[in-house]
Every structure is written in structure tokens, then in C-alpha cells.
């Protein structure tokens, strides 16, 4: 087990500075343009791929850090640049995390590189979990997968909602029900290879924020994938289902295994947005004059900024703790992963709102980035488990009671 330290090592400091430099040079100057265009920023993805910032090698390196901190460090810096563009870069990581969480070594080796493509032809991937009638309620999934023994194929039918990179993905990772009688324990993850027939996306969804990130619903109509495309392999799946049918522990639920892995990273995304808004408001308050003095000299403004700094640092510490625990297999006995995502998401919404208030009327216009940051921040109290779901997870763990 790696020791936990708040002092970053040389590799982590170099990573932070490298990603920050990319965010400052390439992401920030383009943020407003791609938000207005509401299109996937392929030129920035290609630039990131050229320098090795976008690709399975970098993600594997971040995941392999025994402290667990490299991924949240890099993520915070990207989202400091801009959340919409950063999600276009990081969205593929959610699909890769799904393969990491449930796949075997052969599946990781075969499919994770195909999620990203290469530096000359970068690709994106999509993790498909939510459905129109089942977002936080993973037990309510209706997408079905049945095994066809005659052809050694899985046949997948259903609809997935709010898929990041839906419609433009090279590889899809899809959660589906294989045994409806088992509820959430009767689910499995499936890899859908590039060019598989029957994958039918809807048009891109227009969103309040994260406009540079492509989001769409995806239909799966008699989608046939090879038997080896079930995450972890069919033998492991059948053993897990057998335990569940006998009432024994089935070692977790497919979608939740991915969410548990990614929640601290989502928290780091929110911290990046909050920090960007705080830094912009701080600089503005130092320069802006009203009533004959800098507005930061007013106690109300100064206290707001002090509270922003306090809350952002507190959120980051929760994220780092959860990331370290997850990487070192320390049990989340009090919902530490959920705590990190909950705190960071709500801090991002609050901090970006306070930034607008500090700028006043100027903050409400698109002449300044804080209004975009505020729009982007709201998603962090919604996706990968709403704030209410995070509180439910935490309350159940600390009480030992199945609170509804």
C-alpha cells in the first residue's frame, strides 16, 4: 500500500505543470469558440494525442500511480482550462474505466487502445449506462443482452440515454441486463466493437453546459457482438450469476463498479472548474475599482473569496483521499468516494455563482468566462449519481440502515 502524503512527488508535479501548460495554451483560448459552436473540438483532441496527453498510454500511467493522485491531478488541470473541451478529452476515459473495472487482461489489451485510436487518427469511446427511465436507479435498466449459443454471440437490445460521445464513438461499453430476476445483480458490461451493425444514435442533445462535449441517446437494435465481448468473460459472469441465484455475495454490480472507480475523478473535474472561477474572480476583484477603491478591499468581497478558497481546498482533499483509498483497495466505509464527488460538485456550483456575483453585471455576460463556468458546473450535482444519491449512499453506510 502506498503511503498517503499531501506533498506531491516530482513526477506528479511535472504532470501537473505539463497538463496545466496544455490547458493554458490550447484549451483556454479556444473555450468560448467551442462552447458557442457546440461541436466536438477535434483539433484539440488531435493536438493532445500528438503530445501523448490523449491516449491509453497516458491513462494507464495515471492509473498505475500507487498513490492514486495522478489522475485527479491531471483531471483538475484540464477542467481548469475548460470543462466542455476537457470532457471531450476525458469522456473516453469513462469507457476505458469500465473496461478496467470489469475486463480481463486480454480485453484491456485489445479494446482500450481502440477506444483512443492513435496520434494520427484519434478516436473516442462511450460508456452507456443511463436510460430514459433509469438514471441513478441502476436496478431499473431495461436494455437486455441474451446469449446465442449457436453463434457464440451476445444480442443486445435497448436504449441508452445521455451517452458522452454517443454517436461519434469508435467503441461502446454498454451495461445490460442478462438475468432480469436478479435485478441489479443480473447485469453485465459489454464491449461493442467499431462498426458493429445495429448501433443507432439520435441527434446530438443541446445542453445547458459542457457544450463542446457530444452527448446523445443511443439505440441498440439486435446488436450482435462476439461472446468474448462480455466484460470479464462468460465463465466469470456465469459464476457470478450462480452465486447471486443462491443468495450469496455476487461481488458487486457492473455499473456501480465503474462509478466507484470514477467518482473521485468526477470530483476532480468539479474542483478544476471551481478553482478556475475563483482565480478569475480574485484577479477581477484586485483590478476592479468602485467607490474609489479596489472591490477586494470590501469585506463582503474578500470574505467571499476566502470562503471560495476554503471550500475548494476542502473538496480537493476529499478527492485526493478517495482517490488514494480507491487505488490502494481501502474500503469506502463511510462513502468516501461519494463524499468527494458530492462536496466537489456542490462547491463548483456555489463557487461559480459567487464568481458571477463578484463580477456583477459583467459576470452575467459572455464577455467573461464565469457564466460559462457556472453553466458547466451544474452537471456535477447530476451525472454519475445526483447529490441526493450520494447522500443516500453515505447515509446508508454510516447508519447501516437501508434508507430510502
Automatic annotation (TrEMBL):
Cofactor: FAD
Domain Acyl-CoA dehydrogenase/oxidase C-terminal: start-end pairs: 254-396
GO molecular function, one term: acyl-CoA dehydrogenase activity
Protein's UniProt keywords contain Manganese: no
InterPro entries named among the record's database cross-references: Acyl-CoA_DH_CS (IPR006089), Acyl-CoA_Oxase/DH_mid-dom (IPR006091), Acyl-CoA_Oxase/DH_mid-dom_sf (IPR046373), AcylCo_DH-like_C (IPR036250), AcylCo_DH/oxidase_C (IPR009075), AcylCoA_DH/ox_N (IPR013786), AcylCoA_DH/ox_N_sf (IPR037069), AcylCoA_DH/oxidase_NM_dom_sf (IPR009100)
Domain Acyl-CoA dehydrogenase/oxidase N-terminal: 9-115
Annotated ranges, domain Acyl-CoA oxidase/dehydrogenase middle: 126-223
Membrane spanning residue stretches: none
Top-rank lineage group of the source organism: Bacteria
Keywords carried by this UniProt record: FAD, Flavoprotein, Oxidoreductase
Family: Belongs to the acyl-CoA dehydrogenase family.
UniProt name for this protein: Acyl-CoA dehydrogenase
Source species of the chain: Gandjariella thermophila
Amino acid at each position: 500500500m502506498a503511503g498517503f502524503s499531501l506533498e506531491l512527488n516530482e513526477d506528479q508535479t511535472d504532470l501537473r505543470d505539463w497538463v496545466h501548460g496544455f490547458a493554458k495554451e490550447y484549451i483556454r483560448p479556444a473555450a468560448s469558440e467551442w462552447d458557442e459552436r457546440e461541436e466536438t473540438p477535434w483539433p484539440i483532441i488531435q493536438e493532445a494525442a500528438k503530445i501523448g496527453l490523449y491516449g491509453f498510454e497516458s491513462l494507464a500511467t495515471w492509473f498505475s500511480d500507487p498513490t492514486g493522485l495522478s489522475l485527479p491531478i491531471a483531471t483538475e488541470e484540464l477542467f481548469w482550462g475548460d470543462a466542455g473541451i476537457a470532457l471531450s478529452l476525458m469522456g473516453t476515459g469513462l469507457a476505458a474505466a469500465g473496461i478496467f473495472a470489469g475486463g480481463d487482461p486480454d480485453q484491456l489489451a485489445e479494446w482500450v487502445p481502440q477506444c483512443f485510436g492513435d496520434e494520427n487518427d484519434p478516436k473516442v469511446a462511450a460508456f452507456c449506462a443511463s436510460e430514459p427511465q433509469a438514471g441513478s436507479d441502476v436496478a431499473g435498466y431495461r436494455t437486455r443482452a441474451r446469449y446465442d449459443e449457436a453463434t457464440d454471440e451476445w444480442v443486445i437490445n435497448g436504449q441508452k440515454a445521455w451517452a458522452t460521445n454517443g454517436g461519434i464513438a469508435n467503441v461502446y461499453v454498454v451495461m445490460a441486463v442478462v438475468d432480469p430476476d436478479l435485478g441489479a445483480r443480473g447485469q453485465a458490461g459489454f464491449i461493442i466493437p467499431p462498426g458493429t451493425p445495429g448501433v443507432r444514435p439520435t441527434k446530438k442533445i443541446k445542453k445547458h453546459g459542457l457544450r463542446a462535449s457530444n452527448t446523445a441517446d443511443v439505440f441498440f437494435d439486435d446488436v450482435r457482438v462476439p461472446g468474448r465481448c462480455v466484460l470479464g468473460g462468460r465463465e466469470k459472469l456465469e459464476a457470478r450469476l450462480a452465486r447471486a441465484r443462491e443468495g450469496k455475495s455476487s461481488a458487486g454490480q457492473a455499473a456501480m463498479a465503474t462509478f466507484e472507480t470514477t467518482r473521485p475523478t468526477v470530483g476532480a473535474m468539479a474542483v478544476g472548474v471551481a478553482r478556475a472561477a475563483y482565480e478569475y474572480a480574485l484577479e477581477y476583484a484586485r483590478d476592479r475599482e468602485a467607490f474609489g477603491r479596489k472591490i477586494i478591499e470590501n469585506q463582503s468581497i474578500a470574505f467571499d473569496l476566502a470562503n471560495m478558497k476554503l471550500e475548494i481546498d476542502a473538496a480537493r482533499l476529499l478527492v485526493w483521499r478517495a482517490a488514494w483509498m480507491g487505488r490502494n483497495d481501502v474500503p469506502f466505509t463511510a462513502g468516501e468516494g461519494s463524499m468527494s464527488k458530492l462536496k466537489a460538485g456542490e462547491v463548483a456550483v456555489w463557487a461559480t455563482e459567487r464568481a458571477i456575483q463578484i463580477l456583477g453585471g459583467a459576470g452575467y455576460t459572455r464577455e467573461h468566462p464565469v457564466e460559462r463556468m457556472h453553466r458547466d458546473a451544474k452537471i456535477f450535482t447530476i451525472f454519475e449519481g445526483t447529490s441526493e444519491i450520494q447522500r443516500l449512499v453515505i447515509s446508508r453506510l454510516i447508519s447501516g440502515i437501508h434508507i430510502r
